[in-house]
Design a protein that fits this description.
The chain is of the alpha/beta class. 29% of the residues lie in helices and 22% in strands. The chain folds into 2 domains: 80 residues, Urease, subunit C, domain 1 (Roll); 291 residues, Metal-dependent hydrolases (TIM Barrel), CATH 3.20.20. The chain has an 8-stranded mixed sheet.
Length: 427
């Protein structure tokens, strides 16, 4: 903001500036609008592009074009800031943070079942047809809270808690309302499933019953898919009628939509791997507190992991959780990303780079910790061609900090989405 204030005389000449408090506020508003909507240059002491070896560029520059895409990235010695560009500066700049799994927008800041808890429907253990887009509230203050901390994209939707609780989506945190699925990055990015005690109630009441019910549901999807294929091959056969539930299951079986399975215990992780081997769907392991017991098996299956939040309470299925899980996954060359989580008791106290910071304190290299909150979730979600790193042609989503993003004393100074400043703490 200091750079904006320095340019106030030029603005003052346009609006016949008089040094009154009210007029000063007007000028600040105009100046901020110029930064928010014009061509923008971002200068950083350390620029983490999240490309190559992940090492930062000293004295780096990012140019954001009017189309909301990155125009150029590189060291200041090689990047010339064009005339007319507004400039922001920061100690550290990185790609906008991607929350790899959340319920934000379905769960809200009030944490009240009667007002803003739409993330889990328990009337049936199997409801893959429920869509996140139909419940998302981008105007909830919790979305803004995340955005102000540097989170530009969330993978959000229905929470773990039933065998198939519903769909997730990927959306940017500057989208207030979803009037079209085009307002999202991915309208159905995964279907949330849960194995373990969290999903056990009257039905299913045991782990064996849970797996049997999931297997039976996926077999229904196989049967529906076969009827669709037969009708396509034989024009005399009628295609099956559209079915909200079965059509989603077919998308899972056809690898159009991954199945995100929350599994904490080693036996539940193993069960998820067996289901994937049997039905051939794309699997994302969620939570996976005891994944360190099955590193070879997870790697062999080619399955990524969205690591459980460090603020999870170590009891029940999480009693063997460890802060070193991310470091162990990294050492084993297993793709992973961080999430803010889904437990209702602390929806307002987590942010992804806090999770990254905890992992870094327990053996994960700093650059890898930052990558696991940017480019790695983008790769897991199939969005790495658009977001997750600072490269020419990608979305101009940036988070600016006044220090190390992994330090608790650091502040987010600006957040940029699609080349527009959507948050500023500068005074």
């Amino acid at each position: 903001m200091l750079g904006i204030i320095a340019r106030l005389p030029a603005v003052a000449s346009i609006v016949n500036f008089s040094p009154t408090h009210t007029m000063f506020k007007i000028i600040l508003t105009l100046a901020f609008a110029a930064v928010a909507h014009g061509q923008l240059a971002v200068k950083a002491d350390l620029l983490f592009t999240m490309t190559g070896d992940l090492k930062p560029i000293k004295n780096g520059i990012v140019l954001c074009g009017e189309n909301g895409k990155i125009r150029a990235v590189g060291p200041a010695s090689k990047i010339k800031i064009p005339a007319g560009y507004q400039t922001l500066t920061a100690k550290v700049v990185m790609p906008g943070i991607i929350d790899a799994h959340s319920t934000v927008g379905l769960s809200g800041i009030l944490n009240s079942p009667k007002h803003d808890q739409e993330q889990l429907e328990k009337s049936s253990p199997m409801q893959p047809e429920l869509r996140a887009v139909d419940a998302y509230n981008g105007r909830d203050p919790l979305v803004k809270w995340l955005r102000d901390l540097g989170v530009t994209t969330v993978h959000t939707g229905h929470a773990p808690g039933t065998l198939m609780s519903g769909q997730l989506m990927v959306v940017k945190t500057n989208v207030p309302s979803i009037t079209s699925v085009k307002d999202t990055l991915v309208p159905t990015s995964a279907v949330a499933s849960t194995l373990g005690s969290k999903a056990l109630s009257k039905s299913p009441g045991t782990r064996s019953k849970a797996i049997a019910m999931l297997r039976a549901e996926l077999m229904k999807g196989q049967s529906h898919r076969l009827k669709m294929e037969e009708a396509k091959a034989d024009k005399e056969k009628d295609a099956p009628a559209p079915n909200l539930r079965l059509d989603v299951l077919v998308d899972i079986l056809n690898k159009k939509t991954p199945l995100l399975i929350n599994a904490q215990r080693h036996q539940d992780i193993a069960a998820a791997l067996r289901l994937q081997e049997e039905f051939g769907f794309d699997l994302i392991l969620d939570g996976a507190a005891e994944a360190y017991l099955l590193l070879e098996e997870i790697k062999a299956a080619g399955v990524p992991v969205i690591v459980h939040p460090t603020m999870g309470r170590p009891y029940g299925d999480l009693e063997n959780m460890t802060f070193t899980l991310a470091a162990k996954l990294h050492k084993a060359n297993i793709p992973f990303a961080f999430q803010s989580g889904y437990e209702t008791y602390v929806p307002k106290t987590r942010v992804v780079h806090f999770e990254a910071a905890m992992a870094a304190a327990y053996g994960l290299p700093q650059e890898v910790a930052l990558a696991a909150s940017t480019i790695q979730p983008a790769e897991i979600l199939g969005l790495d061609k658009k977001i997750g790193s600072l490269e020419k042609g990608k979305h101009a989503d940036l988070a600016l900090f006044d220090g190390d993003p992994l330090e608790t004393t650091t502040h987010t100074t600006h957040v940029i989405i699609d080349g527009e400043v959507v948050s500023s703490s500068a005074k």
